[in-house]
Amino acid sequence: MTIAIVDYGSGNLRSAAKAFEQVANERTNTPQVCVTAEPDIVAAADHIVLPGVGSFADCRAGINAIPGMLTALNESACVRGRPFLGICVGMQLMATTSLENGQHRGFGWITGVVRQLAPKPLEDDHLDGLACRLPHMGWNQLLLDQPKQPILHGLSDGDHVYFVHSYGFQCDNSEDVLAHSDYGGTVVAAIGRDNLVGTQFHPEKSQETGLRLISNFLRWRP
Amino acid sequence: MLKARIIPCLDVRDGRVVKGINFTNLVDAGEPVAQAKLYDAEGADELCFLDISASHENRETIYDVVERTAEACFMPLTVGGGVSTIEHVRKLLLAGADKVSINTAAVANPDFVASAATKFGSQCIVVAIDAKQTSAQTWEIFTHGGRRCTGIDAVTFARQMVDFGAGEILLTSMDRDGTKQGFDLTLTRAVANAVDVPIIASGGAGTVDHLTAGIREGHASAVLAASIFHFGEISIQTAKTSMSRAGIPMRLKEKQKR
């Protein structure tokens, strides 16, 4: 079994790769983790991970810059139904549109719009450092909308995960939301449909909870 | 809701951790990756490495430290110290850093912050400001590890850095650093109220109450401390529990998941 982590120039893939390797090594059939910019390898992989940091437009341009990559992703995720995990901007790319610095088209896999967060202030202004600021940066708690989704197996309401983002995914269909968080309003934390899942937070930075989600993903046979 | 973060900071010189007292009198306190693992296990919310190697050659050691840490710790890692080119930022991110902190180079060349933020995203660009009080409500920026005064107002500079794309400000009070008398809360609040990005309070934490005050009175989003954690005076778990009891939302230890 191979897991392709798609490398399209979006910064730091080492920590993502290491987290997947750590989990993979704990499994008996030791899946192979491969950081790759080759559409052929992506097309052949059993599981696909699309990380993403920076701006939506830059990430989108990075994928477009690799001939055949978008086709390979579409083919794998939408035609062959391989398990796909988008992380942070990698999740946002699954949307119809993003409004980050202009209007940009996403893959259109999960209908929704990526918009800037607009957190409301807390009543206790002593905690001003924990509200209203952008990016939404740090550890926040998950509230599971679909606790039975296999990717969330073993996770509970209130588990902490690490976020760094200023824009959020607004799903058109509430059934696509797997989990959310509260940051002066609702922030979509995980989305999914069929073989597609995405996390706004960084499982590779979320210690035990994140590693558990990665382990679930590697086990997942949608 | 979002939790306040505790960030232990390891000063690293030539690949080894040292402790800083007023930026001089450096004392060896151990091996960076081992300490990082310990903090990871203790529930630190992030880690920070500050590379204080004097020479260019010795600075190369930080990449190895970052790589080995990223292999062992699945938590956010910020690395700073001598970062002055896009190439430095890229190498640190590729080695496994999640955020890079820029200090002297941000003052010398503010456009560098803008180009780094454009290239890698604001989420990974931290601007580190070392400030010293010059009158009742004024603080000035110091660079080169606190040795050089610039005459630049800290609050104005923080605003400019955020306009240029800094995603977070690491604010150190030079007056308090190493004193264990607590953060400069007036400074912290002045900067926190002037910008919309998260502020990390630094310099002077000696007790858990100081950490609490950094959040409640300083309006910081995170608190950074070195010596109080390094020598086991206070464990991170104890600090988090006490801060939580004081009414601060904290991420307390979670049970084993796998």
Characterize this entry briefly.
The complex is a heterodimer of chains A (222) and B (258). Chain A is α/β, with parallel strands linked by helices and 222 residues long.
Describe the protein's architecture and organization.
- The complex is a heterodimer of chains A (222) and B (258).
- Chain A is an alpha/beta fold and 222 residues long.
- Chain A is built from 6 helices and 14 strands.
- Chain A has helices spanning 14-25, 39-44, 56-64, 69-79, 89-92, 207-219; strands spanning 2-6, 32-36, 47-50, 84-87, 97-98, 104-105, 112-116, 136-141, 143-144, 160-165, 167-171, 177-182, 186-193, 196-199.
- The two termini of chain A are 15 Å apart.
- The mean pLDDT of chain A is 94.
- Chain B is an alpha/beta fold and 258 residues long.
- In chain B, strands 1-4-5-6-7-10-11-12 form an 8-stranded parallel beta barrel, surrounded by 7 helices.
- In chain B, helix 4 links the parallel strand 5 (77-80) and strand 6.
- The longest helix of chain B has 12 residues, at 61-72.
- The interface between A and B is large, with 50 and 48 residues.
